[in-house]
Amino acid sequence: THTHTHTHTHTHTHTLARQVMTLLGWSKPGPELGKVLAAVVDWQLQHPAGSLAEAEAMVRLRFGADCAAEV
Question: In angstroms, rounded to a whole number, what is the distance separating the alpha carbons of residues 7 and 63?
Fold first, then answer.
């Protein structure tokens, strides 16, 4: 069971990373990706009933300016 849970968590994190990169328009992962993922996880813990749209809005609000600066 533990192995299954770990695999599921890893897969979820990988999927989340791709979603965040797509949302911010990043073509490849960089050092900022870890910061964004940590913020999303923190947000999920604080807002367990939060929607995906709300999480995306938080990412855009907190990290959208960083994305614009990198382009």
Answer: 28
- CA angle 53/55/59 to nearest 5° reads 115
Instruction: Name the token pair of 68.
Output: 């614009």
17-50: pLDDT as tens digits: 898 999 999 998 888 999 999 999 999 999 999 9
- Distance (Å, whole) CA 68 – CA 65: 5
Structure tokens at 55: 């999480």
- Please name the amino acid found at residue 40: V
| Residues 47, 70: Cα–Cα separation, whole Å | 29
Which helix (H) or strand (E) segment holds residue 58: the answer is helix 52-70
Give per-residue pLDDT as tens, 47-64: 999 988 999 999 999 988
CA distance 36 to 56: 11
